[in-house]
């Protein structure tokens, strides 16, 4: 199994150590790729408008759509940990997408296999990404009958 997590955010070292620890612990179950994207195109678009930003995010993410695709969005489906584990079970390739400052466009979300919410609260990218990596590890453990999930 290969799981890719894509996020649009300015590079931040906050929670990097914890995320790397979850990636390391997940290695026995899946290959985890964590990609943070932020470039001049996104910075310029975000300085202009929400619409420009969403177009920039789409153009960055479109080539990365592969496998079973899941967008994170506060209006998505709320899952408990066992439902999340079921969602990622039996898939060989999964791609998670965390939107930029303006989220993800409606057109991009239509291309996803599933839209999931980690919380109805709006979360900072760094916190959402940490929570996602923890839930990926938890889901992998649930699927492997590992006692991490009690």
UniProtKB/TrEMBL annotation:
GO terms for molecular function: rRNA (pseudouridine-N3-)-methyltransferase activity. S-adenosyl-L-methionine binds at residues 72, 99, 118-123. Keywords: Cytoplasm, Methyltransferase, rRNA processing, S-adenosyl-L-methionine, Transferase. Transmembrane segments: none annotated. Its EC number is 2.1.1.177. Pfam families: SPOUT_MTase. InterPro entries: Alpha/beta_knot_MTases, RlmH-like, tRNA_m1G_MTases_N. GO terms for cellular component: cytoplasm. Signal peptide: none annotated. It catalyses: pseudouridine(1915) in 23S rRNA + S-adenosyl-L-methionine = N(3)-methylpseudouridine(1915) in 23S rRNA + S-adenosyl-L-homocysteine + H(+). Gene3D superfamilies: 3.40.1280.10. It is an enzyme of class 2 (transferase). It is found in: Cytoplasm. Homodimer. Specifically methylates the pseudouridine at position 1915 (m3Psi1915) in 23S rRNA. Belongs to the RNA methyltransferase RlmH family. This is Ribosomal RNA large subunit methyltransferase H. It comes from Campylobacter geochelonis.
């Amino acid at each position: 199994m290969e799981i890719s997590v894509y996020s649009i955010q300015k590079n931040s070292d906050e929670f990097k150590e914890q995320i790397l620890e979850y990636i390391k612990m997940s290695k026995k179950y899946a290959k985890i790729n964590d990609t943070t994207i932020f470039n001049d195109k996104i910075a310029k678009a975000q300085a202009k408008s929400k619409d420009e930003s969403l177009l920039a995010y789409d153009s960055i993410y479109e080539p990365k759509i592969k496998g079973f695709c899941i967008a994170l969005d506060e209006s998505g489906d709320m899952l408990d940990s066992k439902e999340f584990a079921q969602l990622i079970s039996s898939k060989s390739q999964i791609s998670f997408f965390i939107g930029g400052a303006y989220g993800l466009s409606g057109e991009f979300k239509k291309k996803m296999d599933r839209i999931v919410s980690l919380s109805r609260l709006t979360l900072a990218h760094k916190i959402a990404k940490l929570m996602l990596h923890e839930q990926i590890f938890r889901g992998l453990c649930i699927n492997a009958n590992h006692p991490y999930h009690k």
